[in-house]
Design a protein that fits this description.
Blueprint (H helix, E strand, L loop, with lengths): L1 H14 L28 E7 L4 E5 L21 E3 L7 E3 L29 E4 L3 E9 L6 E11 L4 E12 L8 E13 L3 E15 L8 H4 L20 E25 L5 E26 L3 H10 L13 E18 L10 E17 L9 H6 L2 H10 L5 E18 L5 E12 L7 E14 L2 E14 L3 H4 E3 L4 E3 L5 E12 L4 E16 L5 E19 L2 E12 L10 E14 L3 E12 L2 E2 L2 E3 L4 E3 L4 E4 L5 E4 L2 E2 L4 E10 L2 E8 L1 H5 L7 E3 L2 E2 L4 E11 L1
Antiparallel strand pairs: 1-2, 1-5, 3-4, 6-7, 6-37, 7-8, 8-9, 9-10, 10-11, 11-12, 12-13, 13-14, 14-15, 15-16, 16-17, 17-18, 18-21, 19-20, 21-22, 22-23, 23-24, 24-25, 25-26, 26-33, 27-32, 28-29, 30-31, 33-34, 34-37, 35-36
Length: 701
């Protein structure tokens, strides 16, 4: 496998010299964050709302075939994904710098690759009603996975737009008890007027994941010949349709701006002028509300539970009920920003903007507590139930249970200095200080900055930039306190500090992007071998090269990331992660049809991959686990997983607004690459080989 890596690297750098004809891509959208004016020939444009004050970030629409072959939405966010195998299952990026917090609810972390936050949502302005709908299906009928997603938007007036979006994932799973059902849906609206700007959204999410605890014997996958060549659906797992996690979420977002300014004349031609509105000062209000709930349910015997925890050497005793489990926690979050800005367009000589704002941040937790029991001393429940039934139910409870409530409040101020318009220099520096913190009066703060410069190299844009962030924050309440039937913790944690510096350059005429970064994290919170939060100091260095090559009709897109963790017992990471997409694209078949025929490959070096705990729904670091070999013989299994080239082949067609794709998944297994070692993490495997089909249609008017 090392020879494969060196061969790929050789081609990446060797062919770079012939890439002058590479397809040119637009400079990063983050370089332009001013509202795009509606021109007569512009039928539609889109943007996102970014940051605490809702800065408009323009975004190009996906109208090409690029990445259409990637059917898992989480794999569009990172080149290396750690997940349970099934589409829509809990996942986290293997690239540390790709791990982005999108929700303040701790237990959403394994679903954030699928989660659409208000910052991810696209807003539109269109002259004609627009909609896009995509459908994907793959696998055998009784093990099929499907995804249906789409968006619809329409302008009621030239300035007022409404829309809705939806994303539905339903995967039965190729292995027993591995079903997933994910829903993301919502409404959005915007009004972009002269003095008034408004962006608002309502979103609903639900993630339901049936837990199987992993394969009892992972050798069923890695050594099929000596284990009866079992089909995936016949491999033994720990839980059979009797354990599942459900997460429900709702979020609301509103950003309102009122602009004060004046009109000035702008010369259009030598003989004509027009008036342009110049904002001087803007008053801004941003509101965000989140309401989430997590439930873990399990119906089963104690013997199954004991076998599962014995595998990881974790000794647990039920704290609430002997047989069934119903752990739940609810989280609510309200964050408001009140700000005033001085627009950069106002000052002719000093082209930068200033902003100052206040922050009110309130979090509320409803959680299970280990103090007191609401049932035992309450005659009300004895009147509701038959006495014998009530007594039998109470016997299942082995410990106290009640729900408590906690509210935490943060108060702070923030400010920014920015420049988003122009041709060559762009920057944004932001600072926030919280004088009232969640736990105590000790202040937390955030400092962020990014700087980009664009120069012409051989008459094409060459981008060089740097990003930096220093954050000091209070540990989340649920990182310190949690009470469940199997897993509980109660521990005071230290403040978390994260320093991140990063530099990059981008030259798209040869399809080249380089990036290098360093992260220093003090008191990093990870999940230890007992599946409970712990803290450690971690340093991570990472470097990424991205190259898009084109020679004639041949394309080769590559992205390679190297990273090194200073503390692999707390944060294990693969040294190398690679995504390579090789395809032939011809755009004039029958004069109207664009065709792609290609293969893509994902690969990472082996490392000690974290395990997964169904009771919390979180990934945890573990040195190894025990595998039962019969006759009371148990052997320790290494958790070094990786070194498997996961390859797919596909055929795509694009006809105007219509796209269709056929793909064969995990061709590596058929070819015998990687010695059947396609485990994704301890006890969990990637999907075997199967056929995929995907279709997408854009509709206008």
């Amino acid at each position: 496998m090392k020879r494969i890596i060196f061969l790929i690297l050789g081609y990446i750098f060797g062919l770079g010299a012939f890439a002058a004809d590479s397809t040119s891509h637009a400079v990063s959208d983050t370089l332009a964050k001013e509202p795009m004016p509606v021109k007569e020939d512009v039928q539609m444009y889109s943007w996102r709302s970014e940051g605490p004050l809702g800065v408009v970030e323009r975004v190009g629409l996906d109208t090409l075939l690029n990445d259409f072959n990637v059917t898992n939405p989480a794999e569009r966010r990172t080149i290396a994904l750690q997940h349970l195998g099934s589409l829509g299952s809990p996942a986290v990026s293997r690239i540390f710098s790709d791990r982005k917090r999108k929700s303040e609810f701790l237990f959403f972390q394994p679903y954030e690759p699928y989660y659409m936050s208000p910052e991810d949502l696209l807003y539109f302005n269109t002259k004609k009603p627009y909609s896009n709908i995509s459908y994907y299906a793959g696998g055998k009928n009784n093990r099929k996975e499907r995804r249906l997603n789409g968006v619809f938007t329409v302008n009621a007036t030239p300035k007022l737009n409404f829309g809705l979006h939806g994303d539905w994932i339903n995967a039965y799973g190729f292995y027993p008890s591995q079903s997933t059902r994910n829903y993301n849906a919502g409404l959005f609206a915007s009004y972009m007027g002269r003095n008034h700007n408004l962006m608002a959204s309502l979103s609903f999410v639900k993630y339901e994941n049936y837990e199987n605890g992993g394969l009892v014997n992972p050798d069923d996958v890695t050594d099929p010949k000596n284990n009866g060549n079992k089909t995936p659906e016949n491999m033994a797992v720990f839980f059979s349709d009797n354990a599942w996690n459900t997460l429900n979420g709702f979020n609301a977002y509103l950003n309102y701006k009122y602009h004060l300014g004046f009109d000035r004349e702008v010369r259009v031609t030598a003989d004509s002028t027009t008036k342009e509105f110049v904002p001087v000062t803007s008053f801004i209000y941003t509101f965000r509300y989140e309401n989430d709930r997590k439930v873990y349910r399990e119906d089963g015997s104690s013997s199954i539970r004991e076998d599962f925890f014995k595998r990881y050497g974790i000794d647990v005793q039920p704290a609430i009920k002997l047989e069934d489990t119903h752990d739940s926690v609810r989280f609510q979050h309200i964050k408001q920003n009140f700000g005033v800005t001085l627009d950069e367009k106002f000052n002719t000589f000093a082209k930068f903007g200033l902003a100052a704002y206040g922050i009110v941040d309130v979090k509320r937790y409803n959680y299970q507590s280990s103090v007191g029991h609401p049932y035992i001393d309450t005659a009300f429940y004895q009147d509701m139930y038959d006495h014998d039934k009530f007594t039998a139910e109470m016997k299942q409870f082995v410990g106290p249970l009640r729900f408590d409530e906690l509210t935490r409040t943060k108060l702070g101020v923030g400010g920014s200095l920015s420049k988003h318009s122009g041709k060559h220099l762009f920057f944004n520096f932001t600072g926030e200080y919280f004088f009232k913190n969640e736990k105590d009066e000790v202040g937390s703060f955030n400092l962020e900055g990014n700087l980009k410069t664009v120069v012409n190299l051989f008459k094409r844009p060459f981008v060089v930039g740097a990003n930096a962030e220093y954050r000091r924050e209070c540990p989340d309440f649920l990182e310190e306190r949690y009470f469940g039937n199997y897993i509980s913790w109660n521990k005071e944690l230290d403040y978390k500090e994260n320093l991140r510096v990063e530099g990059f350059l981008d030259y798209q005429p040869i399809g080249l992007t380089l990036k290098a970064g360093y992260s220093n994290v003090r008191n990093y919170v990870y999940w230890n071998r007992y599946a409970k939060p712990n803290q450690a100091d971690v340093n991570v260095f990472d470097a990424t090269i991205r190259e898009r090559l084109k020679i004639w009709y041949i394309h080769w897109d590559n992205e390679l990331t190297y990273q090194r963790s200073s503390n692999e017992s707390a944060l294990p990471l693969p040294d190398l992660s690679l995504y390579s997409n090789f395809y032939v694209q011809y755009g004039k078949l029958f004069k109207v049809l664009t065709v792609q025929l290609g293969a893509d490959l994902r690969y990472n070096t082996s490392y000690k991959v974290p395990s997964y705990m169904p009771a919390t729904g979180m990934f945890f670091v573990h040195p190894g686990y025990l595998v039962d070999k019969g006759a009371d013989q148990q052997v320790a299994s290494s958790v070094d997983i990786g070194d498997y080239p996961y390859m797919n082949v596909y055929l795509s067609f694009h006809l105007k607004t219509f796209r269709v794709m056929v793909e064969y998944n995990n061709l590596s297994k058929v070819l015998g690459w990687g010695d059947d070692n396609y485990l994704s993490l301890p006890g969990y495997a990637y999907n075997p080989s199967f056929l995929k089909f995907s279709i997408s249609v854009n509709l206008a008017n």
